[in-house]
Design a protein that fits this description.
Structural class: alpha+beta
Low-confidence stretches: 86-94
Number of helices: 5
CATH architecture: 4-Layer Sandwich
Largest sheet: 9 strands, mixed
CATH topology: S-adenosylmethionine decarboxylase
Number of strands: 11
Distance between the termini: 43 Å
Strand order of the largest sheet: 2-3-4-5-6-1-7-11-10
Oligomer: single chain
Radius of gyration: 21 Å
CATH superfamily: S-adenosylmethionine decarboxylase
CATH class: Alpha Beta
Mean pLDDT: 81
Number of domains: 1
Strand content: 25-35%
Helix content: 10-25%
Length: 269
């Protein structure tokens, strides 16, 4: 798409939102409590601040002020006030290609924002624990949240990811003509790194005429060793190995498809 010569400020709003899910098996109540405590420490206010500060650098925004707080017994909040960096709009790359790789938080940009919330969850039966990160990056002007997509997903454990991207509003060129999008996009997948595509099955639902783009990602395979909290794979018998693998795959698919799946025989691959 040819660079637009605008009349005044770029009024388009570009919103990127996604949920990142991490699944774990914890056999006892003590282990489940330990997993939640571990996750709470991994994603405390200090680390979240570091991640979002880097995000601001990637998308081209200045950090003006930071306020953060950890809570008891768990959770964290961080607020970052951000302004758009001074740049020539004609120097901004809006082509489709992956960006750099790499509880609650809100980051305010100049007329834009970043907000992140974490949701640790477990159930007393079955031993499954699920950790969800809900994140939204909404920007105005020439900066694009898609540049930070790869970095953010790589910074968070991602078994299942659901992503939505939408461009809202309009901006005018120097001739007064309205433009409802200022960059080319066919799919969110075009902004993802190749290693991410190889590791996940992906499915798109796009509404091009409304500038709405949706992508789901599901991990293709996993090593059970990395999904056992405070348990060792060699301590499991073959039947227990298969049972836990079935539970994990079932949990992942239910989250990916957004519906409960009846347990009938083996479902793992």
């Amino acid at each position: 798409m040819q660079k637009l010569k605008l009349h005044g400020f770029n009024n388009l709003t570009k919103s990127l939102s996604f949920c990142v899910y991490d699944i774990c098996y914890a056999n006892s109540e003590e282990e489940r409590d330990g997993y939640i405590a571990y996750i709470d420490e991994q994603y405390n206010a200090t680390r979240l601040t570091e991640i979002l500060s880097k995000t601001c650098s990637i998308i081209g925004a200045n950090v003006i002020n930071i306020a953060r707080q950890d809570y008891e017994p768990q959770g964290a909040s961080v607020t970052i006030l951000i302004g758009e960096e001074t740049m020539d709009p004609h120097d901004v790359d809006t082509s489709e290609h992956p960006g750099p790789l790499s509880h609650s938080m809100i980051a305010h940009l100049d007329k834009s924002h970043i907000c992140v919330h974490t949701y640790p969850e477990s159930h007393p039966e079955g031993g499954l624990c699920t950790f969800r990160v809900d994140l939204e990056v909404s920007t105005c002007g020439v900066i694009s949240p898609l540049k930070a997509l790869n970095y953010l997903i790589h910074q968070l454990d991602s078994d299942i990811v659901t992503i939505d991207y939408r461009v809202r509003g309009f901006t005018r060129d120097i001739n007064g003509v309205k433009h409802f999008i200022d960059h080319k996009i066919n799919s969110i997948q075009n902004f993802m790194s190749e290693d991410m595509k190889l590791k996940h099955d992906m499915m798109d639902v796009n509404v091009y005429q409304e500038n709405i783009f949706h992508t789901k990602m599901l991990l293709k395979k996993f090593d059970l060793t990395h999904y056992l909290f405070n348990s060792k794979l060699e301590d499991l018998g073959q039947k227990e190995h298969e049972r836990i693998t079935n539970l994990l795959w079932k949990e992942m698919r239910e989250i990916y498809y957004g519906r409960n799946i009846p347990t009938v025989g083996k479902i793992y691959i």
